[in-house]
Write a structure and sequence with these properties.
Layout lengths: L3 H49 L7 H43 L5
Helix pairs in contact: 1-2
Length: about 110
């Protein structure tokens, strides 16, 4: 019951649980990034729409330009984060596939 194989199964189960937690975290981060994109795109669109209407505040064009550049920078940052997260997910998937091949089934 106890021994090397039990220890390996225990460690494999702990590694799998840690990997699953990381996957949930990365998926949550992806959902947050998507929501941020939607909110920022809507904000810039509304500012742009307000700029095309009459009675434009004199600071609106400057604000719109700043927001567009900030949106572009944030989009670039989120894309870099997404790329890093995809690499981490691929590494976890590879680790899961190696673990399932090397650990004998319980029972």
């Amino acid at each position: 019951m106890y021994g090397w194989e039990a220890w390996r199964r225990y460690r494999a189960a702990r590694a799998k649980a840690a990997g699953e937690r990381t996957v949930r975290k990365l998926r949550g981060r992806a959902a947050v990034r998507e929501a941020e994109n939607i909110v920022e795109a809507t904000w810039v669109d509304q500012l742009d729409r307000a700029g095309h209407q009459g009675n434009v505040h004199p600071q609106l064009p400057d604000l719109l330009q700043r927001e567009r550049s900030a949106f572009a920078e944030a989009t670039h940052r989120r894309e870099a984060e997404a790329k890093a997260d995809r690499r981490r997910l691929a590494a976890i998937a590879e680790e899961f596939s190696e673990t399932t091949r090397s650990v004998p089934p319980v029972g």
